[in-house]
Write a structure and sequence with these properties.
By secondary structure, the protein is α+β, with helices and mostly antiparallel strands. It has 3 domains: 7-211, no CATH class; 218-363, no CATH class; 376-446, Nuclear Transport Factor 2, Chain: A (Roll), CATH 3.10.450. The chain has 10 helices and 15 strands. Strands 7-8-9-11-12-13-14-15 form an 8-stranded mixed beta barrel. The longest helix is centred in the N-terminal third of the chain and has 63 residues, at 7-69. The radius of gyration is 31 Å and the shape is globular.
Length: 447
């Protein structure tokens, strides 16, 4: 006999359904409210970022105009500080804008270089040199491009206030008279206005010459075939040839063939010269049974066996049973820090877990010490009297612009027993860098 639902059950079912529907509607409405609130917050954040970007760019233009006529370290230093602050703020504001599909390489390059370039000029004047006519021309060129970019962004800000600017990628009508504008298209136009932006070569980390650098060691070396590189990879890894297989090619400044070795190793061999570029093992180190001196010996033997001679260890760290040691090339009396190789050794059994030779490949070359060098006694006069010099050695150190300088490295100690490295230029006697030596159970580092 077919059962029928009682009237009371039907009422209960309807009530329950209505309650569920009410809950769902409540969630839907609250979700819509939250979404609308979130959308409004994003829009307000984008509007604020555009207004701040306009202000930063206006200040950059003003500072550049002053910098173009400045001629003393005090004024240039003030301009450089302001430009670095304003350009950092501008990049931060730019990153907030909804421009995920827009490439702004020229704008970011401009913002990275302006403060850095003026700062390089400031250091030059501070060292007693003068700003060249070409550098003056570059400053005025920067001034022109800053004005163009500032005017473009200022127009966007005005369009926003007038109700014509959309933050959507697709243009949409925002005003009754049909006038429209899109942040995406406007910013792309601003990017295009910087296509003729000049190359700037100077002593700074954003100088254009850095992307144009090539290795002197590699450019003069003979090319090797993929199969020859594979044979070298097998030799570096100590594996039979059939255990090494090709993976892919790298075609940057240190072009290389990349291979897999065994089950847990990868290695790259340069296309020119067939040098070891880097190798890496994914195996874990077990319980540490060796000390730093053991690791240093294994790492040194590995480098010598693979053609890296006259390497001197400097700093090291120990972590999770692995000791990673920095080696620098010793060119006679000079230690050449740019020629860097990092080797990681398992403290369980002395196995080489990784080796990164890219610093060495990019920087190793024949060097000649400059003429008219100061003696160590003359250079030491510029070391702070608050420090006690314990040791001195000639050293080549890298600069921010990927160049290098000949210096004297003074190993010092302060009154509290802390150790420092002070680098004095061998020609000018000026301090080039100061590093703090940090000793711990986990190694020796600099800061």
């Amino acid at each position: 006999m077919e059962k029928t639902m009682s009237r009371r059950s039907k009422i209960r079912l309807y009530a329950f359904g209505a309650a569920v529907l009410a809950v769902l509607l409540t969630y839907a409405i609250s979700g819509s409210v939250r979404a609308a609130r979130m959308e409004r917050q994003v829009r307000l954040s984008s509007e604020r970022a555009l207004c701040e970007l306009d202000t930063y760019l206006s200040n950059i233009h003003t500072d550049l105009k002053k910098g173009a006529y400045a001629n003393t370290p005090t004024m240039l230093g003030s301009m450089a500080t302001g430009l670095l602050r304003e350009s950092t703020g501008a990049k931060s504001s730019l990153s907030v804008l909804p421009l995920t599909d827009v490439r702004l390489n020229n704008i970011y390059k401009f913002l990275s270089q302006i403060g850095d370039f003026v700062n390089a000029l400031d250091k030059k004047v501070e060292a007693g040199e003068t700003i060249s006519d070409k550098e003056r021309e570059q400053l005025f060129s920067l001034l022109k491009f800053s004005q163009t970019l500032s005017e473009d962004v200022s127009n966007m800000r005005q369009q926003l206030f007038d109700g014509y600017l959309s933050f959507d990628n697709a243009e949409s009508t925002l005003a009754d008279d049909g006038q429209t504008a899109s942040l995406t298209s406007d910013m792309e136009s601003a990017e295009q206005s910087l296509t003729e932006y000049p190359s700037l070569i100077y002593d700074g980390p954003f100088s254009d010459h850095i992307n144009q650098m090539e290795s002197e060691l590699l450019k003069n070396a003979a090319e090797v075939t993929k199969e020859q590189a594979r044979e070298k990879a097998a030799k570096f890894l100590g594996l039979p040839l059939d255990k090494v297989s090709f993976l892919y090619e790298e075609n940057d400044a240190t072009a290389a063939y990349c291979f897999a070795g065994g089950d847990d190793q990868s290695i790259a061999v340069t296309k020119r010269g067939g040098y070891l570029l880097y190798m890496l093992s994914s195996r874990f180190a077990g319980e540490a049974k060796l000390q730093y001196e053991d690791a240093r010996r294994y790492a040194s033997e590995f480098l010598e066996k693979n053609g890296f001679n006259d390497m001197t260890e400097s700093y090291y760290t120990i972590s999770d049973g692995v000791c990673t040691i920095n080696f620098a090339y010793q060119d006679g009396v000079y230690i050449c820090y740019p020629d860097l190789i990092k080797v990681s050794v398992s403290l369980e059994d002395g196995a080489i877990l990784s080796a990164d030779c890219r610093g060495y490949m990019m920087n190793h070359k024949a060097r000649s010490a400059p003429a008219n060098m100061l003696t160590t006694v003359e250079a030491q006069k510029n070391v702070s009297p608050l420090l006690t010099v314990m040791d001195t050695q000639p050293a080549v150190i890298p600069t921010e612009s990927k160049g290098e300088k000949f210096t004297y490295e003074f190993h010092c100690k302060n009154k509290d027993g802390e150790e420092l490295l002070v680098y004095i230029d061998v020609q000018t006697g000026l301090e080039d860098d100061i590093l703090l030596l940090l000793y711990s159970d986990d190694g020796v580092l600099t800061k």
